[in-house]
């Protein structure tokens, strides 16, 4: 399986253990400084709405949910444009980055406190394709999130980050905060090994009444080298390109392979 499937499993197990989970797949546009702040704050707002459904929280916290919702709404408005807005009472002597550090820390703290008063263990921000978030110019992105998370965790606030992406994610983390390597347990998701690679390719087709010849299986495994995304891509192309015939043969592979490789050249490898 690939990393996205693994993240889905994380979400299931976390929710079964009583955690709230905010999932997001980041894009290049989301990584822009003003958009990054909005996205994270929007996730915290969504978690607050989920928390508002907790009967225990309603009994114990009174108007706390409304106060946190108001806080998050005001912060999100402040990061709507390319330039930061300054709400009343915010100290303009701070740099924009310092302001985001403080705003995220306050937001994480308040959502965590709501969790502690509710039926939930804590909350998780789980982000896929996170390699697009980088901070080469020390903008309002990764370092602010890491600093805010580390600060509230030291206070005992139950929050976790699960960040998933291509290997450059580790370089981005290290460049943004020197202590980031101590914040995370790193899991490298590598290639599938026999027989898992073969099963990943043949299993889905066989479960639906179709199969690949042994020659096709060997050729695909040689091309893909156990890389999950490539196995998915080859399987998808061979499935769709063979008109539902029960056996996908070597001639089909030879006919479809140039298009698969060309598609990889124009998308994945580019």
Alpha plus pi helix count: 12
Could you give a short account of the major beta sheet?
3 strands, parallel
Largest sheet strand order: 1-2-3
Shape estimate: elongated
**Share of helix among residues?**
55-70%
Report strand %. Answer: 5-15%
**Class per helix and strand makeup:** mainly alpha
How are helices and strands ordered from N to C? Answer: HEHHHHEHEHHHEHHEH
Alpha-carbon distance between the two ends: 23 Å
Mean pLDDT: 85
Low-confidence segments, given as residue ranges, are: 82-92
Number of domains: 2
Count the strands?
5
Radius of gyration: 23 Å
Q: What can you tell me about this protein's structure?
A:
The chain is mainly α. It has two domains: 3-183, no CATH class; 196-266, Helicase, Ruva Protein, domain 3. The protein contains twelve helices and five strands. It has helices spanning 3-16, 33-51, 55-61, 64-78, 96-117, 142-154, 168-176, 180-183, 196-206, 214-224, 228-240, 250-266; strands at residues 19-25, 122-128, 159-163, 211-212, 247-248. The protein has a three-stranded parallel β-sheet, with helices on both faces. Helix 6 (142-154) links the parallel strand 2 (122-128) and strand 3 (159-163). Helix 2 packs antiparallel against helix 4 (64-78), helix 4 runs antiparallel to helix 5 (96-117) and helix 11 (228-240) crosses helix 12 (250-266). The chain is elongated. Mean pLDDT is 85; it is low at 82-92.
